[in-house]
Recover the amino acids of this structure.
């Protein structure tokens, strides 16, 4: 009975809901089936909101833990995180996200941190590009040559010296990179479909957590 409630019943509910969504999106179904599918979508939105609340509670607990223990190199950042979180939450709840104080926090703190993070990733990208563009093999040379054209395309001085850099770089981005991107998207879609089928058939049970086999 325990195995039935913990494994078979959740798998059956997941399969029924998934099939209901599939039929509602790809086939003509009665109005009652469509209404039921729409109701499930509403419930999904509500559950997502609860997961957001759970994430907020977890973040607060972790930060309070580091503040109370004064964890080395972390409690100061945890304290600052809680101060900003509390101020922005109070302003957002008492007024609206359009309040000037909330917009000031967003523009001067969040966006500044986001820009700083992007700036630091530039150093890692440069380092990775240097290692990737070292033409020790034929494959690396094939990667190096298009990469140089793309770099030249985004360098106005080089484009001014030789305008075809722009045309060649655009062709590489549209045809070469575009084709590779489509291949990745198709592969990801096939993997998603396979995972969905495994979930519907009961072979993929990771969402059930760790089940003790008796």
């Amino acid at each position: 009975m325990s195995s039935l409630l913990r494994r078979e019943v959740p798998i059956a509910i997941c399969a029924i809901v998934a099939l209901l969504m599939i039929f509602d999106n790809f086939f003509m179904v009665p109005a009652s089936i469509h209404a039921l599918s729409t109701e499930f979508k509403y419930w999904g939105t509500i559950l997502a909101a609860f997961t957001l609340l759970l994430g907020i509670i977890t973040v607060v607990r972790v930060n309070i833990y580091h503040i109370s223990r004064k964890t080395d190199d972390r409690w100061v950042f945890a304290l600052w995180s809680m101060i900003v979180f509390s101020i922005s939450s109070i302003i957002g709840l008492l007024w609206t996200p359009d309040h000037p104080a909330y917009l000031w926090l967003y523009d001067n703190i969040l966006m500044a941190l986001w820009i700083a993070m992007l700036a630091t990733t530039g150093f890692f990208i440069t380092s990775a590009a240097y290692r990737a563009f070292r033409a020790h093999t034929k494959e690396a040379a094939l990667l190096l040559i298009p990469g140089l054209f793309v770099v030249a395309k985004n360098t106005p001085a080089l484009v001014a010296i030789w305008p075809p850099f722009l045309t060649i770089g655009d062709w590489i981005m549209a045809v070469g990179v575009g084709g590779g991107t489509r291949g990745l998207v198709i592969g990801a879609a096939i993997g998603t479909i396979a995972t969905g089928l495994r979930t519907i058939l009961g072979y993929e049970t990771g969402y059930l957590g760790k089940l003790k086999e008796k």
The chain has a mean pLDDT of 86. Residues 102 and 108 are 10 Å apart (CA to CA).
